[in-house]
């Protein structure tokens, strides 16, 4: 949150672009002028210059059936060819595409020629397994080159991938396979995490157990962890065995610009995750454009590193599609920042000479906590730009990032966007914008956003409200998989023709935008979106729970933390030791959803605060969870409840 204390901290300090940087920057002020003159012509130029089309589009935007947009609809392309073959054809086959670093210290570099070959072979393999255009393929892999290969092989065939983050549980995986009606799952035996193999295959087995989704014909298993796995004959196939002898020639077909590229599930305000659908031409245009301009990419010389897992949208757009469409060289790292020791990330920066670095505020705060001597013991002089994404970055972390990692001189880009927006929407341009610690600041050229009040009226400078996107953009979601109504309802019912992002924002006196966090029942824990409703339904699925309410409470390390208030069934209250009950509920949530959703705190209460109409007053619970004075309780059915709950927190 941004408040008066932050102003004290930064004392209104701003950072003008370094003149040398600005002189050589990929994007200058003329970009905004061009987009301002003719927004659609601007996007058409981006599409033609950044994407190789089989049939170049003549149409730009079709908004005749809002909120269902079609971009570049008469164009055809193959997304994988754009990320691979065209760079080889242009003579860059020997350029490294991926410098992969495994957590145990093994490593592998793949050039564009090699990556292209791997993807062609994998595409042939998928074809032999019956995968055709339009089929859904679930990918549940660690951060290894095969994850990138699998995504691109699926895209090459015009099939649709749905990557599920490896930290999600069997239950979450099953729900996603089921919703997408996937025909194939690509997984691994296990991956490395904090010095040990973390198995993945058992979750797939559990997800596909007897009563699981029946659409899956095969499970392809990459060998990474070397751990023992159970095997279902006829269904399970080793990736490396199947690839033996597979041809490395593959003729790619071109698909319509609006052909589905992927589904990525994200938490919404209900218990059921939303399958966010992205398509091909517009998505690729905007990820390539933003990756090049926001990060000032120079593909011949830069070494890009985005630390996000491919299981999140940041990994889709800024590990796979953006950087590869731009022919960049990048680092892909399997493990955690602190294994085997706290400086691992900075060792990786030093080893590969990383120049552009993109990470999340939660990671910056944990590096801060470990102490500046750790990065300072490494040579970080290769770095020339730093980025942040996933949650509001507090000015203190911003300033530390710049001073300690950025040698007090590197530009920082704080990029606001969402799974739904597909690509960056609001961010400084490093050669143009005078940056303010903690603010995402300005919509990118071609993007139109506003901050409005509850009635949809734009707020005056200095005011706060809700962030909306006022014009369609090329990489916007095209819908929610299988749920047309929910798409309209969630994003477009509030302000009609403007996209409601679910984020609060402030516009300062200069017109710059500061993001203030979610305004709905979505939490942001370590940059990951979690739904209160989803965790509540996991809790009530436990036999001892009668009722629960979950809130996101401010947390210094993770931004927000999950705090669950739980009412036990009467019998359980008598039978169970409260501490054991809380521990077992925390475990239960991790099993149901994944470790990222595990509540930091479980508070057992006798009753939840409710209005007379029975609505849980989360606002009051948030006050308790954050140790604040409890707010207005006059609408409570039973005003005494809050006194009891706050006593129980102490
Ligand atoms: C939050 C991640 C403030 C926001 C790319 C958004 C941010 C949600 C920022 C999307 C930022 C992301 N400043 N808040 N720079 N970037 N957010 O879908 O609440 O995982 O709605 O996409 O993260 O999370 P998602």
The coarse silhouette is: globular
User: How much of the residues is beta strand, in percent?
Assistant: 15-25%
Distance between the termini: 25 Å
CATH superfamily of one domain: ANL, C-terminal domain
Strand order within the widest beta sheet:
5-4-17-16-18-19-20
Assigned CATH class of one domain: Alpha Beta
Plain-language structure description:
The chain contains 23 helices and 30 strands. It is of the alpha/beta class and 650 residues long. The protein is globular, with a radius of gyration of 24 Å. Among the domains are: 449-518, Luciferase, domain 3; 526-649, ANL, C-terminal domain (GMP Synthetase, Chain A, domain 3). Helix content is 33%, strand content 23%. The strands form nine sheets. It has a seven-stranded mixed β-sheet, with helices on both faces. Strand 19, helix 17 and strand 20 form a beta-alpha-beta unit.
Q: How is the secondary structure organized here?
A:
Blueprint: H1 4-10, H2 19-24, H3 30-37, H4 39-50, E1 61-65, E2 68-71, E3 76-77, H5 79-83, H6 85-92, E4 96-101, E5 107-111, H7 112-128, E6 136-140, H8 145-156, E7 160-163, H9 170-180, E8 184-188, E9 190-193, E10 196-199, H10 201-207, E11 218-222, E12 236-238, H11 239-243, E13 255-256, E14 260-266, E15 274-279, H12 281-294, E16 303-306, H13 313-325, E17 329-333, H14 344-352, E18 356-359, H15 361-370, H16 373-376, E19 385-389, H17 395-405, E20 412-415, E21 449-452, E22 464-469, E23 479-480, H18 484-492, E24 499-507, E25 513-518, E26 522-525, E27 528-531, H19 532-540, E28 545-555, E29 559-568, H20 570-575, H21 578-592, E30 601-604, H22 618-625, H23 640-649
Parallel strand pairs: 4-17, 6-7, 6-8, 8-11, 11-12, 16-17, 16-18, 18-19, 19-20, 29-30
Antiparallel strand pairs: 1-2, 3-13, 4-5, 9-10, 14-15, 15-23, 21-22, 22-24, 24-25, 26-27, 28-29
The structure holds 5'-O-[(S)-ethoxy(hydroxy)phosphoryl]adenosine (WTA).
């Amino acid at each position: 949150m941004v408040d008066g204390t932050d102003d004290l901290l930064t004392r209104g300090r701003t950072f003008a672009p370094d003149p040398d940087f600005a002189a050589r920057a990929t994007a200058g002020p003329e970009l905004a002028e061009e987009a301002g003159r003719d927004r659609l012509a601007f996007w058409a130029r981006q599409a033609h210059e950044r994407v190789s089309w089989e049939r170049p589009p003549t149409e730009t935007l079709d908004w005749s059936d809002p909120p269902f947009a079609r971009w570049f609809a008469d164009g055809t392309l193959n997304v994988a060819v754009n990320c691979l073959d065209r760079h080889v054809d242009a003579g860059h086959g020997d350029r490294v595409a991926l410098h992969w670093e495994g957590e145990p210290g093994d490593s592998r570099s793949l050039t564009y020629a090699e990556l292209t070959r791997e993807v062609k072979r994998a595409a042939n393999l998928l074809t032999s397994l019956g995968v055709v255009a339009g089929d859904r393929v679930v990918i549940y892999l660690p951060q290894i080159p095969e994850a990138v290969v699998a995504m691109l092989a699926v895209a090459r065939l015009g099939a649709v991938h749905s990557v599920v983050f490896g930290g999600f549980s069997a239950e979450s995986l099953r729900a996603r396979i089921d919703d997408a009606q996937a025909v194939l799952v690509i997984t691994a035996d296990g991956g490395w995490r904090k010095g040990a193999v973390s198995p993945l295959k058992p979750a797939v087995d559990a997800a596909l157990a007897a009563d699981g989704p029946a659409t899956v014909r095969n499970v392809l298993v990459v060998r990474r962890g070397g751990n023992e796995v159970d095997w279902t004959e006829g269904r399970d196939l080793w990736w490396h065995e199947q690839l033996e002898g597979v041809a490395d020639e593959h003729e790619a077909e071109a698909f319509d610009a609006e052909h589905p590229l992927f589904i990525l599930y994200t938490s919404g305000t209900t218990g059921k995750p939303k399958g966010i659908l992205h398509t091909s031409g517009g998505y690729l245009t905007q990820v390539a454009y933003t990756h090049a301009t926001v990060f000032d990419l120079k593909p011949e010389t830069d070494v890009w590193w985005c630390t996000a897992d491919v299981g999140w949208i940041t990994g889709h757009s800024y590990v796979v599609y953006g950087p590869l469409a731009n022919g960049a060289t990048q680092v892909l790292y399997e493990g955690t920042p602190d294994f085997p020791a706290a400086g691992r990330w900075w060792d990786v920066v030093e080893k590969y000479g990383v120049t552009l670095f993109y990470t999340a505020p939660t990671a910056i705060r944990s590096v801060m906590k470990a102490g500046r001597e750790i990065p300072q013991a490494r040579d970080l002089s290769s770095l020339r730009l730093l980025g942040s994404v996933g949650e509001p970055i507090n000015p203190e972390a911003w300033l530390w990032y710049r001073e300690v990692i950025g040698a007090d001189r590197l530009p920082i880009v704080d990029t606001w966007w969402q799974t739904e927006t597909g690509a960056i929407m609001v961010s400084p341009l490093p050669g143009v914008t005078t940056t303010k610690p903690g603010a995402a600041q300005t919509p990118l050229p071609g993007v139109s956003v506003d901050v409005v009040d509850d009635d949809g009226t734009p707020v005056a400078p200095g005011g706060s409200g809700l962030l909306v996107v006022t014009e369609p953009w090329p990489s916007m979601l095209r819908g929610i998989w299988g749920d047309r109504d929910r798409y309209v309802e969630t994003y477009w019912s509030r302000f009609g023709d403007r996209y409601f992002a679910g984020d609060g924002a402030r516009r300062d006196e200069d017109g710059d935008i500061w993001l203030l966090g979610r305004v709905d029942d979505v939490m942001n824990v370590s940059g990951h979106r979690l739904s209160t409703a989803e965790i509540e339904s996991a809790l009530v699925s436990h036999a001892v729970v009668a009722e629960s309410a979950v809130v996101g409470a401010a947390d210094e390390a993770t931004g927000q933390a999950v705090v669950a208030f739980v009412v036990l069934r009467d019998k359980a209250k008598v039978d169970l030791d409260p501490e054991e009950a809380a521990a077992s509920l925390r475990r239960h949530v991790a099993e149901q959803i994944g470790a990222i959703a595990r509540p930091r705190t479980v508070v057992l209460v006798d009753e939840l605060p409710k209005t007379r109409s029975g609505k849980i007053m989360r606002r009051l619970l948030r006050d308790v969870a954050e140790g604040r004075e409890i707010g207005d309780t006059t609408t409570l059915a039973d005003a005494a409840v809050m006194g009891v709950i706050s006593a129980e927190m102490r």
